[in-house]
Each structure stands twice: as structure tokens, then as C-alpha cells.
Amino acid sequence: MDETPDYRKFLEDLNNGVSKFSDLSKSFSKVVSISHNDADGISCLHLMQNLLYKMNINYDYFIYNRSVSWNNYLNGIFSKRNTNKTAFIFTDVGSNLLELIPIIKKREEQFFILDHHEVECNINKEEYPENLTFINPTMYGFDGLDHIAGATLAYMFAKKIKPKIVNQGWLTIIGIAGDSLKPMNELNSFNKDVYQELLEENIFEEREGLILFGGMHDSVKNGLKYSILPFIKGFGGESDIKIKSMLDNLQINPNKEFIKLNESEIQKIQEKVDINSIGRYALLHQKQGILQFAFEHALLLNILCFKNISAAVSIIQLKNITRYAKEIYLEYVSDLAQNLRILSNELPRHETKKAIFIDVKGKIPPSNWSDTASFSTVNELLNPSKILFLGGLERKSQTIKLSIRCTRRYLEENNGIGVNKIISRIKKDLGGTGGGHKLAGGIRLSKASYKRLRENIDDFVINSIQK
Ligand SMILES: [Mn+2]
């Protein structure tokens, strides 16, 4: 599991891919860029568009949200003129080779896949069709979340072809912020190297201070209220009156700009709420207001990708946020902070040796279950050595819908075996539909199956680890 990453082999793949793309590019009449529907994916998309523009190649783009099979999706995109004068570049998606290879085999176009998601099957390189170039650092022991964001990979690829892409490196910073969910001083491997390189080139500005991701662009009061990383118990999702009076007691002006807090004020807040989140964060010169803040910008893109994908694709090119996007953002962070407060304070839970069940039906709206589960684990609001099952009865289908999450710590303690393996185990024994990756997934079960799951959860978890 813990292999040391093989730089040499990965860079060999990257360089070969770059050479092949450059060589063939003279014959391309069009390149179609396909990317993932999240902040990292949208950043990749714009990096690729910039590259293709600089190369003077016509391009088109599509966003893939994994709601349909690759076969159905690509059938809607492929043109009848199946020609090697067209190329496809997939960024931040495309590691589902079992599905993709049979499709690519039947086509004449060139396919370049740059992805950092784990490859689900082991297909030998020799079995790749000739028109496929597959670059994925996770095949060489790199961690797709921790070491290299999709936008980092896309940037490295593009920069080898057009070094001037450095000036678009702020896109990479957004991708890294959106995928890593970490203060910038905690980046690793390629993410860290590229970040450092862009900082030295003065592509963005780095600052140090109290990190309250989600609300750093706002006032002190709202910063504390809407911070979702870390979520601050006692402030997060609380009423304005409560937060104001706490800040008054500390003699801090609640309306002061959050990033203008001075050292003694930060210290007072830290003493009050026991947070230890001093770190570095990135500010983008190209942008104003909330869009200046790499993390908040990325979060906004992630939210918009679900609400309004065209708004996401266009806002990354804007200097200022639109009123529409601002409203959506505020609603999102305020709901999430409130849900995290409810979750950490008042919900009854059923806890076993290996798992925690929380029934949130009637307490948290179903559309928020998934994000509440994610941020409660990222913030370790519950015991990080246990798997979280959050959900409840869905009235329409009369089935139980569960968001399942674990922490990185859980993976370390359990041989890297996480949520997806447990879901497979449950489906095998109890039926139901669902899936996911190591850290996150979901399942839908009948009431009877759910009852059995709750009663025997420790066996399921242990069996999934042993198998
Ligand atoms: Mn990504």
C-alpha cells in the first residue's frame, strides 16, 4: 500500500505524453477538452483552453459529472466524422479504463487522459490502444489527493509545451485549494513544488494568519460563523447576537475585516475557542473580493458546479463575484455551518466499536446530508477512528439513504481499506445500491437491511478489512 512514489517512471510518462501531443498537434484540426465538474476540474479546463489558444488550435469543451456512463456520454459528443484530425483531452476525469478502453479502441481520434483519480482496474500498458495516452501519477504511488491535484498535473503538462502558461498558474492554485482542503503550508510533493514555483514567479500572494476557510473574505463575526474548515464549536453556525457578544467581551470589533485581525486579537480568539489553525493561504492578484481568496473561490466553484454549471465555468474568468453567485455561496456556508453545529451538539447517535450512525431525518435537509457528512469527518467532529453512517429514511422511496465517510486517520489504522470496500461488502450481503471511493460514498438500503446493518456493523467493517 505505502509504496514510495516513482518520480522517474511518472515523469517518463508525462514527457512521452507531451512529446506525442506536440508532435501530433500540427495535424489536429480540433481538440475537445473534457473535464470534471468541480473546482479542480474547471481549473484544468481553463488551463487546457489557454494552452490550446496559445497553440492556435480550435477547441471545444464539455463537462462530465459521472451521472451517465462514458459510453452514453461520449456518444453524445463524438462526431460522425471519426477522424484522427480530432483529439480529446480528458482532465481530472478518465481513469475508468475498463469503460473507456473499449470505446477508444473503436475510434480514430487521439485520446489524451490526464487524471489523478485512482485507476480502478489493472490493465497493462501494452493493452492500451495506440490512440490512447494515459498519464496518471497514482499508478506510480502518488496520492491523488495529497500529492498532485488534477490542476497540478494539467499545469505540468501544459507548461512543458508552452512555458508561458505560468501566467495562468493562479488557476492551478484554485485547483489545489479545492482538492487538498488544506492550508498552503501543508501541501506535499508536486502540489508543493508547483505552488512554490508559482509563488516565486509572483503569480499570487501568500499570507500567514488564522485560517478559517469558508469565511476569510468576510468580517470577523462572519469569518467565525461561516468557517467550515476548521468548524469552530461555539461560533460556527451560531446566532449573530451570540457571536457579537462574545467578540464584545474580547474587545474585538465584530465588523472588522477578518484578515486585518492583529496578533493579540488572534491570540484572544484562540484562547477562547481552542483553535490552532495558524497557517498560510493564497490570495489571487487577478481577482477582487471573495474571488481573491483561493480556498473560497474554489468552494464557490464546487457549489456552482452542482447548482449551475455554466455559472461555474464563467465565474472563474471574472474578476468580481456576481450577486447571484454571492447569494448561493452565503446560503451554502450558512446552511453547512448550521448543520455542523446541529450535528456536533444535539443529534442522538448509535455508536459501536467501529462505527457511528446518526439519523438526521427531519433535522438536516436530505440535499445537505452528503456535505454535512464530509465536513464533519474532515473536521473530525466525531471519533476519527470510526466510520460515519449519516442519513435516514427517504420518504419517496421508503428506503434508507446513507452517506458514508471515514477520515484519513481511519484509513491509516485499517490498512488503507475504507468506505468503498465496506459498501461492496454491504451490497454483497444485504443488497442495496451505491458506491464511492476510499474516503466517501453512499448507499441506499431497504429498512430491513438497514436494521441488520446497524445490528452487525462491526462484522461488516471487520470482514471488509480482512477480505
Ligand atoms: Mn481533482
How is this structure best described in words?
There is one protein chain. By secondary structure, this protein is an alpha/beta fold. Helices cover 44% and strands 16% of the residues. Strand 12 (433-436) and strand 13 (440-445) form a beta hairpin. The model has no long low-confidence stretch (mean pLDDT 94). It binds manganese (II) ion.
The CA-CA distance between the termini, in Å, is 15 Å
The CATH architecture classification of the largest domain is Alpha-Beta Complex
CATH class of the largest domain: Alpha Beta
**What ligands does this structure carry?**
manganese (II) ion
| Domain tally | 3
Shape: globular
| Poorly predicted spans | none
Q: Tell me what portion of residues adopts beta-strand conformation.
A: 15-25%
- Give the integer mean of the pLDDT values: 94
The largest sheet, given as strand count, sense and whether it forms a barrel, is:
6 strands, mixed
How big is the Rg? 23 Å
Instruction: Supply the number of helical segments.
Output: 17
Number-wise, the strands total 13
CATH T-level fold name of the largest domain: inorganic pyrophosphatase (n-terminal core)
What percentage of residues falls in helices of 4 or more residues?
40-55%
| Helix-strand category | alpha/beta
